[in-house]
Design brief:
The chain is α+β, with helices and mostly antiparallel strands and about 230 residues long. Helix content is about 35%, strand content about 20%. β2 and β3 form a beta hairpin.
């Protein structure tokens, strides 16, 4: 069994607690990746993301940290989701539910033909998923060459999510990838059913975030969708 090399990852020690290391080794034994070959991609607010290679080719490994997270904030979000209304305030239960929530949202989006990464497996606080591109950059770092065409395609993806009853809840320039000038949506841990408490509020925020971004790229007001456009259709 390959040993995990913490110094190589150059990341916080708390990501690699014994519990997480054991689960990484289980996933390694199932062929999803070789621990020694993992390459850090970035550190997010709640999770660290790595690139690996295994039975599905190059993949993304997202590890939710068991410490140093805003547990209260996560709990306040997830308790509004009817799928997790019985969740307790125990830290690990919150993290595991948060991870499972992203996994479930991605599965449902794939079923609804929304452009999101394919998820391969989940293990407590770890998600293994498809790597988009080499990897593809977020739109904040890879500005669409044709903002209007990109925006129209993004609206199509949002409508597909609404059709299957999902609100992203945290949509912005930070979690939309530019893959061959087409949007791919990521980071669904805050995604919720559209009948959730405050779902309308989060949807309005999603739309405001993306409209503000594309407005700065020169899109005219008449090109930007509003909440009323979605309500009518």
């Amino acid at each position: 069994m390959a040993k995990i090399t913490k110094d190589k990852f150059k990341t916080e020690k708390t990501v690699f607690d014994t519990f997480t290391i054991n689960n990484l080794r289980k996933l390694e034994s199932e062929g999803f990746f070789d621990i020694e070959s993992l390459i850090p991609l970035f550190m997010g607010k709640e999770a660290n993301v790595f690139i690996g290679k295994g039975i599905h080719g190059e993949i993304i490994i997202k590890i939710y940290r068991l410490e140093n997270c805003d547990f209260n904030g996560m709990y306040n979000y997830i308790k509004q989701d009817p799928r997790f209304h019985k969740i307790s305030r125990k830290k690990r239960e919150i993290i595991f539910a948060w991870t499972k929530r992203e996994y479930k949202n991605l599965l449902k989006c794939r079923e609804g033909k929304v452009k999101v990464p394919t998820v391969y497996t989940i293990k407590h606080n770890i998600i293994v998923m498809e790597m988009i591109g080499e990897p593809a950059l977020k739109i904040k770092d890879s500005i669409p060459k044709n903002p209007l065409a990109f925006y129209k395609e993004l609206i199509i993806q949002i409508k597909k999510m609404l059709k299957i009853g999902i609100i992203h809840g945290d949509l912005s320039k930070f979690n939309i990838l530019n893959y061959n000038e087409k949007p791919v949506l990521i980071d669904f841990s805050q995604g919720m059913p559209k009948n959730s408490l405050r779902a309308k509020e989060y949807f309005e925020r999603d739309l405001k975030n993306i409209n503000n971004f594309f407005r700065k790229l020169g899109l005219k007001e008449e090109s930007l969708k509003t909440l009323q456009d979605f309500i009518k259709k």
